[in-house]
Amino acid sequence: MRPQPPRRTTHTHGTPADLLVYDRWGRSGRPVVLLHGLRYDRTMWWPLAAELGDDITAVAVDLPGHGQSAPRAHCGVDDLAEDLATLVYGLGLRRAPILIAHAESAHVSERFAARYSAHRVVTIGGTGPARLDDVPEPYRQFAVPQRSPDLPAVYRDWLTDALPRSTHVGAEHFPHLRDPAGFAALLHSLH
């Protein structure tokens, strides 16, 4: 029996000054780009991505200054949408992606969709305080915010604009952690 490749692989994109780190699952099927909200990182998507199966290519990106991506002095929505488009194009994905945006990352997903090809944009969560009561204990570790005093200044444009309302899935901050299999089924229905 031959060894199976890992389901999740970690990659980098860009130069050291604008480095983005991302995880990828799958090699074919409708691409799904997963964007976390401010103060979180790409690991918040791991339980969901594990449920998606092999017929979806999932890409979870660390926003600048989050997780393992390089910090920036300023992170404008337009610049990040362009960086994301370059990353998606470089992956050789042959179909327009579904963008899943948590909280404030809805800004970049909407800008991406306005400028580039996107199959659908789905936003989850909000900007109020996140409650972990509905998240099962094993998944709470993926919903712990980072404490970085520099992030509000770097993302100041994101914090002053109202969140766009694309296809919005509930008011919960973490529906993908509350029920990863159910959220994966929802994504499969969006093909």
**Helix-strand makeup class:** alpha/beta
Backbone shape: globular
In quaternary terms, these chains amount to single chain
Number of domains: 1
CATH class: Alpha Beta
Give the full name of the CATH homologous superfamily.
Alpha/Beta hydrolase fold, catalytic domain
Remind me, CATH topology? Rossmann fold
Helical content (DSSP H or I, runs of 4+)? 25-40%
| SSE succession | EEEHEHEHEHHEHH
Mean pLDDT: 87
User: In percent, how much strand structure appears in the residues?
Assistant: 15-25%
**Which regions are unreliable across 5 or more consecutive residues at pLDDT < 50?**
none
> What is the rounded Rg?
16 Å
Summarize the structure.
The protein is an alpha/beta fold.
Brief descriptors of the model:
single chain; 191 residues; alpha/beta; Rossmann fold; globular; AB_hydrolase_sf
Secondary structure topology:
Blueprint lengths: L7 E6 L6 E6 L4 E6 L10 H7 L3 E6 L15 H14 L7 E5 L3 H10 L4 E5 L26 H4 L1 H5 L6 E2 L6 H4 L1 H10 L2
Parallel strand pairs: 3-4, 3-5, 5-6, 6-7
Antiparallel strand pairs: 1-2, 2-4
Helix pairs in contact: 1-7, 2-3
Keywords: Hydrolase
Pfam family, one: Abhydrolase_6
Protein name: Alpha/beta hydrolase family protein
Description:
- The protein has 191 residues and is of the alpha/beta class.
- The model has no long low-confidence stretch (mean pLDDT 87).
- It is built from seven helices and seven strands, in the order βββαβαβαβααβαα.
- It is globular.
- The protein has a single domain, classed as Rossmann fold, CATH 3.40.50.1820.
- Strand 3 (30-35), helix 1 (46-52) and strand 4 form a beta-alpha-beta unit.
- The protein has a seven-stranded mixed beta sheet with strand order 1-2-4-3-5-6-7, with helices on both faces.
- It has helices at 46-52, 77-90, 106-115, 151-154, 156-160, 175-178, 180-189; strands at residues 8-13, 20-25, 30-35, 56-61, 98-102, 120-124, 167-168.
